[in-house]
Write a structure and sequence with these properties.
Elements lengths: L12 H15 L3 E2 L2 H6 L14 E4 L3 H13 L4 E4 L16 E4 L6 E5 L4 E5 L4 H8 L4 E2 L10 H7 L6 H4 L2 H4 E7 L5 E3 L13 H5 L8 E8 L1 E2 L3 E8 L3 H13 L4 E7 L1 H11 L8 E8 L1 H17 L6 E3 L2 H12 L1 H7 L5 E8 L5 H14 L6 E4 L4 E8 L4 H20 L15 H8 L2 H12 L15
Parallel strand pairs: 2-4, 3-4
Antiparallel strand pairs: 1-2, 5-6, 6-10, 7-11, 8-9, 8-10, 12-14, 12-15, 13-14, 13-17, 16-18, 17-18
The chain binds flavin-adenine dinucleotide (FAD).
């Protein structure tokens, strides 16, 4: 994707110069303008060109975020929230320059209410930090994008991951938020009640808004009890189609899988080589069950029978924690394992999501398309939700190959939409999927733009993302 393909945002040189002067004086060492730090806060995870912010502020309180946003609003300068920068579609790029607000120092767990199964955290806390903090409470936070992302970033992209089939996504697990709005006002969207009918649902409006409507500074999250027993394993299948059919049947029968993840043959080869493992090199499902000892045993046996029916197996499962940890580490490392298949490549990762009944058809057509387009592209997926990812490994200097990859991505998105799916199940739109959001929502985009204009009339919050404002 060339710079010319990205939604343009005009630079306001005068405003930026004024803001740089004010923030330097106000934040001293905590406001940085060096090239390396600005590059790191522009987009680094895909082949989308890096567009640097003009300065990076390391904030410590909600009031500091509010102060910076007020200064930027006064001078009409973009503000881009930065969690850990693991988003995959150019989300943290600064096409019109401006100020990156780094949330990593807002990393305090503010409260854990074990009896209510919830907690309140600052937005810079990462999912692993939260689970380490919760270790002795018998509780955990289940949403697990492969990266150790910040909870503010995860709310902003409406992230999910391997556990979503059982516990839902960030949409279901954020109870309320504190956010700084584009005029600097601090808003709290709700309390800790499990449900509420009180007015517009501002929590859900901000979740998934990719920093375009406000900056989240704190979140109240649902927690889960750590299950008494956990079992899991890897099950090989003769083809992608049979693996997907086994998933569909498992979900349709209501077997309460906690995780059910697909990795295709190329993906398995990359995992074996990267993680020094010897799993079967055919399409595999990685599965986990949560419950009581008897419950997880019964679920594993039922799944084994389904796998057998579709020619899969043997399904070897274990409840030994170390073995399960090894299995899921390998699955979470699939991104890096894929990259290692082609040293020097860049990873054009894309995700789509379809209704579960269309999953087999969609993945099968996609694998054929990859072969016909002559791309190196492992497939992995949170298939219990009908969500899968294709990691296309491209030579960043080969324009023809990149054009072929982009053609493939277009067809993949059109295929998912033609099956009543979505152009992204969890990665979000950023810059990379602007045209597919339009394809998916049609006139609905006008309503989204109206909301954006009403809340952020100066268009200073992460401009150039989701859609171009005309
Ligand atoms: C190896 C790998 C595996 C991944 N696997 C998954 C997966 O399984 N599931 C999944 O959903 N994603 C996955 N991702 C993508 C990524 O981890 C998620 O999108 C994650 O939610 C981004 O969080 P972050 O803290 O890195 O946010 P950033 O990348 O820093 O920011 C993401 C977006 O949110 C905005 N933002 C950040 N913080 C705030 C805030 N406090 N307030 C308002 N806006 C904010 C930013 O402006 C930006 O638009 C993966 C990424 C990698 C590299």
């Amino acid at each position: 994707m060339a710079l010319a393909d990205l939604a343009p945002v005009e630079r306001n040189e005068e405003g930026i110069a004024a803001v740089l002067g004010i923030l330097r004086q106000r934040f001293g060492e905590r406001f940085q303008t060096g090239q390396a730090i600005r590059e790191q806060h522009g987009h680094t995870t895909t082949y989308i060109p890096n567009q640097l912010p003009d300065g990076v502020a390391f904030v410590e309180t909600t009031e500091e975020v509010s102060e910076i946003v007020r200064v930027c609003a006064e001078h009409t300068v973009p503000v881009i929230a930065f969690g850990v920068g693991s988003s995959l579609e150019g989300h943290v790029n600064a096409p019109g320059g401006g100020i990156s607000i780094d949330m990593s120092r807002m990393n305090r767990v503010l409260a854990v209410n074990a009896e209510d199964l919830d907690c309140t955290v600052e937005a810079g806390v990462t999912r692993e930090e939260l689970n380490t903090y919760l270790r002795d409470t018998g509780l955990f936070f289940p949403i697990d994008p492969g990266a150790n992302a910040s909870l503010g970033g995860m709310a902003s992209t409406r992230a999910s991951g391997t556990n979503a089939v059982r516990y839902g996504t960030m949409r279901e697990n954020v109870l309320s938020l504190t956010a700084v709005m584009p005029d600097g006002r601090i808003v709290k969207t709700g309390g800790r009640a499990r449900k509420s009918s009180a007015g517009y649902d501002l929590t859900r409006l901000l979740v998934g808004s990719e920093g375009t409507l406000g900056i989240i500074t704190a979140l109240t999250l649902r927690l889960q009890g750590i299950p008494q027993a956990i079992s899991g394993g890897v099950c090989p299948f003769p083809s992608l189609k049979t693996a997907c059919e086994a998933v569909i049947q498992t979900i349709q029968l209501g077997i309460p899988v906690a995780r059910i993840e697909l990795v295709n043959t190329l993906g398995m080869q990359s995992i074996n080589s990267y993680s020094k493992l010897d799993y079967p090199e055919s399409p595999c499902l990685f599965i986990e069950f949560h419950g009581t000892d008897a419950g997880v045993q019964e679920q594993a046996e039922m799944f084994g029978e389904i796998a057998d029916e579709f020619g899969g197996g043997p399904f070897r499962w274990t409840n030994v924690a170390e073995e399960r940890a090894k299995l899921w580490k390998a699955r979470h490392d699939a991104y890096w394992a894929g990259m290692a298949l082609r040293p020097g490549c860049q990873n054009l990762t894309t995700d789509v999501c379809v209704p579960i009944s269309r999953l087999a058809e969609c993945i099968e057509e996609t694998e054929i398309d990859i072969a016909e387009t002559d791309l190196i592209a492992p497939i992995v997926g949170h298939v219990g939700d009908g969500n899968f990812h294709v990691m296309i490994l491209v030579d960043p200097d080969d324009a023809e190959e990149i054009a072929r990859a982009e053609g493939f991505v277009s067809r993949l998105n059109e295929r998912a939409l033609s099956m009543e799916g979505t152009c992204t199940g969890e990665h979000g739109i950023g810059q990379g999927k602007v045209k597919y959001l339009e394809l998916e929502h049609g006139a609905g985009i006008d309503t989204m733009k109206a909301i954006k204009r009403a809340i952020d009339p100066l268009n200073i919050m992460n401009p150039g993302k989701l859609f171009a404002l005309d």
